[in-house]
């Protein structure tokens, strides 16, 4: 098994700049709640996930550089070289490796931002079912978890044809940070309880964003 190294901060800085420029050339991007991302220290971003655009859009709009846990299948050929170069981390969703865990915790221990898609894959993006990885990293690090919701990035879909058209309006909405109680332990029951607490916070943020969209219509 190949050891996953701690991604470089410089790569993530470059990735943020490049993704931000590209996103704003291709789409009409609006960022809401960027002030909710702490300006220093370890942070975990927990976005919903409905389309291919979500990860690069978050990379380009977060106020700070990010390191994203992304499925290992993407880390092949030129795309894999690029993802490694901009500081992203390969993830085997069925069998997380020690190297990936070390890289993720290393990012947080270094006071950086780790992006964990809590649902584990693209889907409805409603946070109805969460994997336990998000809570594990939050309990392990004590880092605040910032909910993120995308609008306009895609209807539910798994093909590039589901991506929004050029110059479409897309929005990235950062919610208020959630910090899990300290001293909760790392037992399975503690992990399940923390996962449910985070799920409720993420669902509340998504519903607040949906209500605001309805009010604008």
TrEMBL record:
Name of the protein this chain belongs to: 1-acyl-sn-glycerol-3-phosphate acyltransferase
Top-level taxonomy: Bacteria, Bacillati, Actinomycetota, Actinomycetes, Jiangellales
Keywords: Acyltransferase, Transferase
Keyword Transferase in annotation: yes
Molecular function GO terms recorded: 1-acylglycerol-3-phosphate O-acyltransferase activity
GO biological process: phosphatidic acid biosynthetic process
Domain Phospholipid/glycerol acyltransferase: 43-153
Domain of life: Bacteria
Gene Ontology CC terms, in alphabetical order: plasma membrane
């Amino acid at each position: 098994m190949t050891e996953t190294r701690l991604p470089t901060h410089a790569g993530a800085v470059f990735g943020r700049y490049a993704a931000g420029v590209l996103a704003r050339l291709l789409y009409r991007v609006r960022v809401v709640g960027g002030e909710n991302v702490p300006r220093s220290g370890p942070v975990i971003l927990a976005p919903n996930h409905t389309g291919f655009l979500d990860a690069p859009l978050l990379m380009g709009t977060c106020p700070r550089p990010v390191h994203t846990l992304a499925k290992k299948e993407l880390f092949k050929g030129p795309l894999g070289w690029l993802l490694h170069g901009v500081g992203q981390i390969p993830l085997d969703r069925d069998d997380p490796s020690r190297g990936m865990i070390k890289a993720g915790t290393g990012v947080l221990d270094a006071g950086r931002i780790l992006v964990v898609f809590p649902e584990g894959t693209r889907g409805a993006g409603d946070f109805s079912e969460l994997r336990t990885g998000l809570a594990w990293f939050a309990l392990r690090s004590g880092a605040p978890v910032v909910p993120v919701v995308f609008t306009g990035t895609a209807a539910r879909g798994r093909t590039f044809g589901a991506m929004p058209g050029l110059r479409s309006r897309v929005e990235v909405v950062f919610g208020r940070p959630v910090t899990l109680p300290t001293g909760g332990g790392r037992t399975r029951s503690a992990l399940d309880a923390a996962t449910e607490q985070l799920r409720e916070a993420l669902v509340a943020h998504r519903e607040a964003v949906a209500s605001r969209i309805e009010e604008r219509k």
